[in-house]
Design goal:
This protein is mainly beta. 4% of the residues lie in helices and 51% in strands. It has 1 helix and 28 strands.
Length: 338
């Protein structure tokens, strides 16, 4: 990550309490995970590489070199390429999500940290975590062209685009803000204060609420997006270092990783409360969910592991060694993203 982010996370790392796993975990059965055979990708942000994992054997079959500090990744709308953002190399690496072959590298994309396509597939958005701006690119189905660079608050972190492709929401990690960017005019609509170190942001399927993980706090803030600027209306206690979200695929529940607490919380989006909790040792960060919803795949940031959690049993069933500071996690065989 950027120098600013690493310094904040170092403090959290000192507080984390990694769990020591028994040798039986590595022998746990694969069950239904990876039944379709698509590889699972883990970004090693401080080793400039991607670990490719076979979910049938749970072996790391390949380690792909990338640019410096790959943190997040996103699938192209045609599902033919997985885009990896290499923040310190100012580049994007396109990878075949089925074969793990590198397709091409796009350079001169300034400090891409987190990235997202708009639902209408017309726009590709990145945040420059070190350089304090959001970039909006036009997407023609193959190539990117920069439409607008927008100065923001300090250390933009994560993005969300509403279902109508009209508004981009971005958190400002070090100025403690949520901002809304109008896609039509590519200008900032409003900004509103948040709690300490806001990280991931998730908009509910009806576009009414935004949930924000507070890495410097102990839970998730809820903002009413029908107001301008958005107004905080709720707070959901989840655990220390609430950070990254992953929808559960049923449009009713949301997972949040609590990096310092070493847990993952499941939030009911109707009741806006935690309804389940899972152990997640080693500083849990980004997550993916198996297609059948039975397993959570999470990057254990401080342990250099991919951790696999059984949802029904609420326990860790496997850990796989990867590179230094694993961050983004993704597989084509996943549950719906909403």
């Amino acid at each position: 990550m950027s120098v600013l982010v690493i310094s904040a996370e170092t403090v959290q790392y000192a507080q984390a309490q990694p769990l020591t796993l028994t040798t039986q975990l590595s022998a746990a059965p694969a069950a239904s995970v990876g039944a379709k055979g698509a590889p699972l990708f883990v970004l090693n942000s401080l080793e400039a590489s991607i670990s490719v994992i076979d979910t049938n054997t749970w072996a790391e079959t390949q380690r792909i070199p990338t640019g410096k500090e790959p943190h997040h990744l996103y699938l192209t709308p045609d599902e033919k390429s997985l885009i990896v953002a290499n923040a310190l190399s100012d580049s994007l690496t396109f990878i075949d999500p089925r074969t793990a072959q590198v397709q091409r590298v796009v350079n001169k994309t300034l400090d891409p940290y987190q990235l997202r396509f708009s639902p209408d597939m017309k726009w590709f958005i990145t945040v420059a975590n070190r350089l304090n701006h959001v970039d909006i690119y036009r997407w023609d189905g193959k190539d990117l062209s920069l439409a607008k660079r927008i100065a923001t608050g300090k250390t933009p972190s994560h993005l969300w685009v509403d279902s109508k492709s009209t508004v981009v929401y971005a958190t400002m990690q070090d100025s403690n803000e949520l901002i809304a960017i109008d896609l039509a005019t590519q200008t900032i609509r409003w900004r509103t204060p948040t709690g300490e170190l806001p990280a991931d942001v998730y908009g509910t399927p009806d576009d009414r609420y935004a949930l924000i993980g507070l890495t410097g706090g102990e839970g998730v803030e809820v903002f009413d997006l029908t107001q301008s600027p958005a107004k905080r209306v709720n707070f959901i206690p989840t655990g220390k270092g609430a950070h990254a979200f992953r929808a559960f695929g049923d449009k009713k529940h949301l997972l949040v990783s609590n990096r310092v607490q070493n847990t993952i919380s499941k939030i009911d989006l109707q009741a806006m409360k935690v309804v389940a909790e899972y152990p997640a040792p080693g500083g849990p960060d980004c997550m993916d969910l198996s297609a059948d919803g039975k397993f959570i795949f999470v990057a254990s940031r401080w342990a250099r592991k991919l951790t696999v959690i059984d949802v029904d049993a609420r326990k860790v069933v496997r850990q796989v060694s990867v590179g230094k500071s694993p961050h983004g996690v993704w597989t084509l065989d996943h549950a719906p993203r909403y």
